[in-house]
Amino acid sequence: MEENSKRLEKYVKSLRHVLNTIKYEKEVKEIIELAKCYLRDSEYYFEKGDYFTSLACIAYAEGLLDSLRLMKKAKFTWPRHSLKQAKKVLVGGVFDILHPGHIYLLREASKYGKVIVVVARDRTVKKFKNREPIIPEKQRLSIVENIKCVYRARLGEDPFNLEKVLLEEKPDFVVLGPDQNFLEKMVEPIINKLKLNTKIIKIKYKYSNFPLCSTTKIIKKITEIYSKKEA
Under a CB-based contact definition with an 8 Å cutoff, are residues 119 and 144 in contact? Predict the structure, then answer.
């Protein structure tokens, strides 16, 4: 936790530095002020020890500033210790019915850097799980990309192409959940083939602080409730 705190403190300082030195056009002043609000929020949550929310505020601010730079409305350079320059952490999954196990996985992944989530396509889910997902891919993506410890989210390839995703993202880490053994067997050979400097991290234990920490259990519970109503 202390290591995460020190890393986050560097991100806060880097964002503060950019906002103190940024050059921008007058028409985007309100957006700059909004980024400053996110910085203040980040500092507030950092002092409270809520590092995940603090990190999310930094990510929002950086997103705004990057957009302005892309539109050539602002000029600045990210320092070496900014979140923008942080290690890339790749996480993949279906995220069909979001539950505490998903949040735990993403929070654990965020300890290693900025989390980039690959949300499985509908056809990929059907191929590997032999069933269609309950929630469509674009809706699942929309939910995941709004989780505060997620830096960025994207859909996987259709058809399924893990090699292309790894080549495009070139992550420093791939974090896998305890039930993703099949994915580990697929990822490792591809990393070796592409000669990527990517480390695989496996979360060993399933999150079980609550009774409904898996999609299967949630579906079973819903089925039981509605079966009783219909009886």
Answer: yes
Task: Report pLDDT for 6.
Answer: 83
Which tens digits make up the pLDDT trace of 107-120? 999 888 899 999 99
Quote the pLDDT of residue 1.
Answer: 56
- Tell me the CATH class for 87-217: alpha beta
Here the tokens at position 129 are 């799980």
**Contact by Cβ (8 Å): 212, 99:** yes
Q: Please answer whether residues 144 and 150 qualify as being in contact, where contact means their C-beta atoms are separated by less than 8 angstroms.
A: yes
Percent helix, strand and coil across the chain, each to the nearest 5 = 55, 10, 30
pLDDT band of 51, cuts 50, 70, 90: confident
Domain 2-75 sits in which CATH superfamily?
AF1782-like (1.20.1270.90)
What token pair was written down for 209?
């602080």
